[in-house]
Structure formats: structure tokens, C-alpha cells
Write a structure and sequence with these properties.
- The protein has 13 helices and 14 strands.
- The chain is an alpha/beta fold and 404 residues long.
- The strands form three sheets. An eight-stranded mixed β-barrel has the order 4-5-6-10-11-12-13-14, surrounded by four helices. It has a three-stranded antiparallel sheet with strand order 1-2-3. Strands 7-8-9 form a three-stranded antiparallel sheet.
- The longest helix is centred in the middle third of the chain and has 21 residues.
- The two termini are 28 Å apart.
- Catalyzes the reversible conversion of 2-phosphoglycerate (2-PG) into phosphoenolpyruvate (PEP). It is essential for the degradation of carbohydrates via glycolysis.
- It is found in: Cytoplasm; Secreted; Cell surface.
Length: 404
């Protein structure tokens, strides 16, 4: 059960950028590996992703983080693999900062993920059983099928238009109905002469006349696929991306937080939108207070950039009544133990948890198992291998659970 070796190397993520892969081994030869994801739309309070910053590979090499993995392993070798919190606390202590700006969160998370996988193997447990204990559930997928904002090279402000399949019992039914709708949407776009090229997360990325047109297209696809009333909608606005000097430049017009709140209220009243993520900017606390008072009893308001999987920021949001749900991204905070702490605090205060991928992903399905601790999983469209790896893992878990 003791850790004998930790190794690391550079590999490529789904955007063809370098990222960190960590391989941990026990003294009996058992091993497990993990690949760290990378975000494009990032919050200012996220843990630091360390890049080399040299001229090579546009400054995106992660050899420094790889070297730091090897340096960090010195204090971990010989420890029991199931001492996750002790190991994670060691990583934070060695770094010496609150956001891993010394060694890089891509180094610490790679170690933390690999150790968790290896501990589950050592105990002959599925990863979700090891991470969530007895308190697991199958999450409902939130599928980003139309991309805009920082995830696509088009003219749409809102970053993600998602299918939220709520009218089905099993995970398989939810996923397959969404996949059918995804194909139906592609056919509709083709018929309208719109681009069906894909954005970073597998969603289509056409140029449209407005954000509302994107919503109308999704509803048309849902209806044509035969799932009206069974599939609702969710939005990730990623509003920090178009917020500056106290205003939001939305559809080429400057808006105050009051005006943005009115836009969301109209959309929620007009369309079957059940969830809105990052409706306002991460630093716009007055705006969040206004919006939360106005809408959080009508719709799920999700804090991503607002909370960045950080218990201190989440506690501040809880104290001030901001939002009612949190996006969970392990690479925002740096270790699995800190991620679990955020999930625990959220659930204790009746905030829904959404396990989330990043736009730069890999074939690693870690978050699929981890999502069994959450109400939802957000991991892109039902296309591209780095996205379907997560969905297919959940299909496998559901199949295995039904077999017993």
C-alpha cells in the first residue's frame, strides 16, 4: 500500500496543447495514471496552471510542472496511498502559496488524481466508490451543443447553450435522447445553410443573428427529435469574458447588471431554461446580490468564476446569498481533497454541485467517477473522444450497477 514511484511527462490535450500526465506506482507494481485538463475561459481566482513561457510551443510547454511533480514526489514516497488528505496537504505546504503559484496546480492535481486512482485500485474499489463513499448518485448530463464566447470562433456572446435532459429515468436514456437531439440540430443547421464546424467542446459554432436565435435552434431540434417537455435548456454565459469597467458588452451594447438581470428574467420566462452559469462577472458582487434576489427561486444560478471550487469564496457566497449552485472543477483548486471540501460545503448549504470538464480535456475519465458525488455533470457535446470518454464511463458504471 506504500507509494514507491511517481513519474510525469508532457502529453497533448484536446486543443493540441501540452499538459501534464502523472503515473503513480506502489511497491507491489500496481500503478495508475492521470492527465490534467486545462481551461480557456478561466476565473481570476483559479489556482495557477504553470506554463514554461518560453518561445517554444508558443510558451505553452509544461516541462516546469513535470519537473515539479518529480521534485514533489520526494516527500510522498513511502506514504500509504490511501492517505489522500495527508498527501494533498503536503503538496499545499511545499508550494507555500494559496493558489499553487510556486509549483503549479497542474503539477499538484496530477499527483492528487493519480494517487486517488491508485488508492481505489489498491482497495479494489471503483473510483467513484472511493471518492464518494456510499453517498453517490448518477448525475444528469448538461451537454454543450452550441458553442460561443471563448469556446468558438463565432459572433455569439453566450459561451455554452446546453441540453438538460430532465424527463428520463436512466443516465443512458438522458444521454441517448440528447445525442439524438444533437444529430437533429446538425441537420437543422445544414438545412439553414449554417456552419456545422465544432467548437472546443464538441458543440456546433455557427454565426447567428443573436443569442436568442441559438436558443430557438435548440428548441427546434428538441421538438423535431420528439423530446419536447423532456429536455430543457441551460446556459453558461461566461459573462466575465465581456465585462469591463462595470458594464457588460452584450450583443454590441453596454449593459448594467440590472439590465442583464432583466434579460435573464425574460429568457427564463419565455423559454424552458433551468440553469444559468456565470450570469454576471466574478467581481460583480453587487450584481450577483441583485440577480440572486431576483431569480434564484426561479432558476439554478451557478457560480463558476464566482467560486472557482474554493471553499472560502463559496462560504462568502453562502453568507451573502449569492447563487444557489456551484461548478466543480478540480484544476481550479489544485487537489482532490480541496475539491471534496467544496462539494461537502455546497451540499451542506443546499447548493447543487455540477462536476465540470475543461475546454482542454483528454481521454482521462476521472471526473465521470467524481461526478457521482454531484447532481450534474457538464462535459461537452456527445461528440469528440475526450468528451464521450466521460459519458461512456458513466454508461459503463450504470450497466455494472444494474448487473448486481
Amino acid at each position: 500500500m506504500k507509494i514507491a514511484k511517481i513519474d510525469a511527462l508532457e502529453v497533448l490535450d484536446s486543443r493540441a496543447n501540452p499538459t501534464v500526465k502523472v503515473i503513480a506506482s506502489l511497491d507491489n507494481g500496481l500503478s495508475a495514471s492521470a492527465i490534467v485538463p486545462s481551461g480557456a475561459s478561466t476565473g481570476i481566482n483559479e489556482a495557477l496552471e504553470l506554463r514554461d513561457g518560453t518561445n517554444e510551443f508558443f510558451g505553452k510547454r509544461v516541462q516546469k510542472a513535470v519537473n515539479n511533480v518529480k521534485a514533489l514526489s520526494a516527500g510522498i514516497l513511502g506514504l500509504r496511498v490511501d492517505e489522500q488528505r495527508l498527501i494533498d496537504e503536503h503538496l499545499l505546504k511545499v508550494d507555500g502559496t494559496s493558489n499553487y503559484s510556486s509549483v503549479g496546480a497542474n503539477a499538484t492535481l496530477g499527483i492528487s488524481m493519480a494517487i486517488a486512482k491508485l488508492a481505489a485500485k489498491a482497495h479494489n474499489l471503483a473510483l467513484y466508490e472511493y471518492l464518494c463513499g456510499q453517498f453517490y448518485e448518477f448525475p444528469t448530463p448538461m451537454l454543450n451543443v452550441l458553442n460561443g464566447g471563448a469556446h468558438a470562433d463565432n459572433n455569439i456572446d453566450i459561451q455554452e447553450f446546453m441540453l438538460l435532459p430532465t424527463g428520463f429515468e436512466s443516465f443512458k436514456e438522458k444521454l441517448f435522447a440528447s445525442a439524438i437531439t444533437y444529430h437533429t440540430l446538425k441537420n437543422i443547421l445544414k438545412q439553414k445553410g449554417l456552419n456545422t464546424a465544432l467548437g472546443d467542446e464538441g458543440g456546433f459554432a455557427p454565426n447567428l443573428s443573436s443569442n436568442e436565435e441559438a436558443i430557438e435552434l435548440l428548441l427546434e431540434a428538441i421538438n423535431k427529435a420528439g423530446f419536447s417537455g423532456k429536455i430543457s435548456l441551460a446556459l453558461d454565459v461566461a459573462s466575465s469574458e465581456f465585462y469591463k469597467d462595470g458594464f457588460y458588452t452584450y450583443e454590441n451594447d453596454k449593459k448594467s447588471y440590472e439590465q442583464m438581470s432583466e434579460i435573464y428574467e425574460k429568457l427564463v420566462n419565455k423559454y424552458p431554461i433551468l440553469s444559468i452559469e456565470d450570469a454576471l462577472a466574478e467581481e460583480d458582487y453587487e450584481g450577483w446580490k441583485h440577480l440572486s434576489a431576483k431569480l434564484k427561486n426561479k432558476v439554478q444560478l451557478v457560480g463558476d468564476d464566482l467560486f472557482v471550487t474554493n471553499v472560502k469564496l463559496l462560504q462568502k457566497g453562502i453568507d451573502e446569498g449569492l447563487a444557489n449552485a456551484i461548478l466543480i472543477k478540480p484544476n481550479q483548486i489544485g487537489t482532490i481533497s480541496q475539491t471534496i471540501d467544496a462539494i461537502t460545503l455546497a451540499k451542506k448549504n443546499n447548493y447543487n454541485c455540477i462536476m465540470s470538464h475543461r475546454s482542454g480535456e483528454s481521454e482521462d475519465s476521472f471526473i465521470a467517477d467524481f461526478s457521482m458525488c454531484c447532481k450534474y455533470i457538464k462535459t461537452g457535446a456527445p461528440a469528440r473522444g475526450e468528451r464521450t470518454a466521460k459519458y461512456n464511463r458513466l454508461l459503463e458504471i450504470e450497466h455494472l450497477c444494474k448487473s448486481f
